[in-house]
Amino acid sequence: MRLGVLDVGSNTVHLLVVDAQRGGHPTPTHSTKTALRLAEHVRDGRLEDEGADALVASVADARRQAIELGCEDLLAFATSAVRDASNSNAVLERVRVEAGVDLHVLSGPDEASLTFLAVRRWLGWSAGHLLVLDIGGGSLEMAVGRDEAPVHAISVPLGAGRLTRDWFTTDPPQRRELKSITEYAHEVLAPAANTLLGEGTPDRAVVTSKTFRSLARLTGAAPRSAGPRVRRRLSAAGLRQVVAFISRMSSADLAELEGVSASRSHQLVAGAIVAHEAMTALGLEEVEVCPWALREGIILGRLDQVQPGGGVLSVGGPLATGRPTLHEAR
Questions:
Q1: pTM here?
Q2: How would DSSP label each residue in 62-130?
Q3: Hey, what's the torsion of the CAs at 252, 173, 54, 74, to 10 degrees?
Q4: Tens digits of residue pLDDT in 34-46
Q5: Going by C-beta distance under 8 Å and a sequence separation of 6 or more, which residues neighbour residue 93?
Q6: 133-158 pLDDT per residue, tens
Q7: Which residue intervals of 48-107 are DSSP H helices?
């Protein structure tokens, strides 16, 4: 089947279209990103009308593209920016009525679990006892386990965008701000690390997300053009050097570095500090970078609902739907 996945994140709205079948490898056929920076439109806990208007327009456009590209279904989900907004229910209703899309809000643990599923499928059972980290715009997701479902799935408010917005007042940030955000990240991560490490030392520690990919590239990992199957790693020593280097640079200068996008350069320093503190708290000297993450987890979860004969299994969980297909909803 051809599936559309619409990821409404704190920074971007991303439509990914794939051709996929149960037991097969999802093949991307189309990808479109719109930089909305929804998290920056949140004031006093509420998503402002300007941000909601932009979201409705972007989702409506993504739905139109999905139909034109022949998608049989559109799996639309939102993460922390919408999840944490005090008026999220009203915003979701606007999206449903005006854009014609039921936007499912994932909880933090759901994000962590689905990302873990994607990494497990990418690496296979040989990865053994697996630890997965994912830095988003609004939160940091962590999960650990030996199966396809993690034993622990944890989400903490250490997203790169959230911390940049809440802690930095200058560009580049002041030294005292860097110290404060480091101490805060250390404090938040300590109990989560104890829980994750309570399952024992992981056989493989793996990271996903644009932030980790950018940091790995800055330490010498292969560029994106080398393809998804090239092994990429990020060491704690290399990350320490990157943090010291980029913390003195403005976002405009950071955007000139290879592997750093202009739309996310302003939050790279905060993301790097979180990455370093997470690796330190978990005692990780090196991590691997996986090209699959939450979107792929969404796709795999949807395909797992499809019976060999073509029907859809009736199962619970964040991806179970009783809703009409994309074309039925037209």
A1: 0.91
A2: HHHHHHHTT-SEEEEEE-HHHHT-TTHHHHHHHIIIII---PEEPPHHHHHHHHHHHHHHHH-GGG-SE
A3: 90
A4: 988 888 888 888 9
A5: none
A6: 999 999 999 999 999 999 999 999 99
A7: 49-68, 80-83, 88-94
